[in-house]
Amino acid sequence: MTQGTLTDILSLVEKHDRLFLTSHVRPDGDSLGSEVAFAGFLAKLGKQVTVLNSGPPPMNMEWLPGVRDIGVFDGSLAHRQCIDEAGAVFVLDTNAENRLGKLAGPVRGARGPKALIDHHTHPEDWFDVRYVSTAVSSTGELIYEIIAACDPDLIDVRIATALYTAIMTDTGSFRYQGVTPKLHRIVADIIERGAIVPGLVHSAIFDHRSMEGLYLLGQALETVRLYCGGRVAAITVTPRMLEDTGASSEETEGFVNFALSIDHVEAAVLFLETAKGTKMSFRSQGDIPVDKWARAFGGGGHKNASGAFLLEPLEKARDKVLRAAPRYIGVSASNENDPALSTEDVADLASLLETRFKKR
Questions:
Q1: Three-point CA angle 198, 200, 204, nearest 5°
Q2: How many Cβ atoms sit within 10 Å of the Cβ of residue 63?
Q3: In the chain, what are the domains?
Q4: How do residues 309-323 score in pLDDT, each as one tens digit?
């Protein structure tokens, strides 16, 4: 594996007419936006491009122009041939084989060179070329750099919308670390080239919930509990809650941010119980490294936004993860054996919000 450059990526593109793109399981705004933008760019160069993921896009990304061109890998001979016959395979926004889901084996065994375009830490060593920078905000920012290095005039409305979506979602609407003056200049160029109205894109992604999703949010908020002296918050969603409300698990997107918004909370975790185990979504503010916290349980991601999955029931997974919290948020080890606040000190989210509003 070698650390690649823009030239290496563009050389692979130039050499091969058939290209294959994929990204991680449970695709998000950065992975989907990067795929749509890169595929659109390659198509403009006259390349034959196939994009397949292990699963469909979430409900809040179905509006994105071009996302319907991304197929879901079904293990068929036709899909496997797309991978085997590709001159080069590009893996976007994930650097671990197990994050590719059903595509892991076929992609790892592809005959063509495998190139990684990503901004996460600790890439695995099976890629032939890796174009990686942990200093940038998103994979979308790297895709912009690739396109701009070739010909920025290739950025049309569809590509610009995809790039803006990738960058905006992976920066928490431009709140996370990695938001730099350079990034704002890039975003300004994207907005100008695509005549984008940022508010409309943001609204399409974040401002639409079904009634079922709203009922689910209400139930989830009742589960919020504080730990580690009020610096960590946990919020939980169970299969029973999904069944009672009729909501889908996709509609839990963003729930963890409600827990993170509580005064004095520096890190929050959403625990989503599934038939196979427990999915965790970690979020933090400032210098709290939730990526290290997530990696301790087989996951990973960004410093302020990460995820993990444990093949364990909810109660066991939640207890294990929260007992590890002090090691990653700077709480003294003496608190590690009992990180939860005492019952009389635990306030539910509704009470906290009521107090906050009364102060206004």
A1: 120
A2: 14
A3: 2-205 (3.90.1640.10), 211-359 (3.10.310.30)
A4: 999 999 999 999 999
